[in-house]
Amino acid sequence: MKAAELRDLGVDELGTRERELTDQLFRMRIQKSMGQLEAPDSVRTVRRDLARIKTVIRQKRGA
Q1: In this structure, CATH architecture of domain 3-62
Q2: What confidence score (pLDDT) does residue 37 get?
């Protein structure tokens, strides 16, 4: 997910995506602890996407 794509979305849509990724990250951490996560590198991708979304939200609210 590119930051430029995220900037085109509204704050409400970004908030929804943020909640979805937070929930997904939680589930992935549980799977990882149980040894059931098939792609451990996907945790990194989700964390980075979540950080991008949070950054864009802060930029939109501050402007």
Answers
A1: Orthogonal Bundle (1.10)
A2: 93
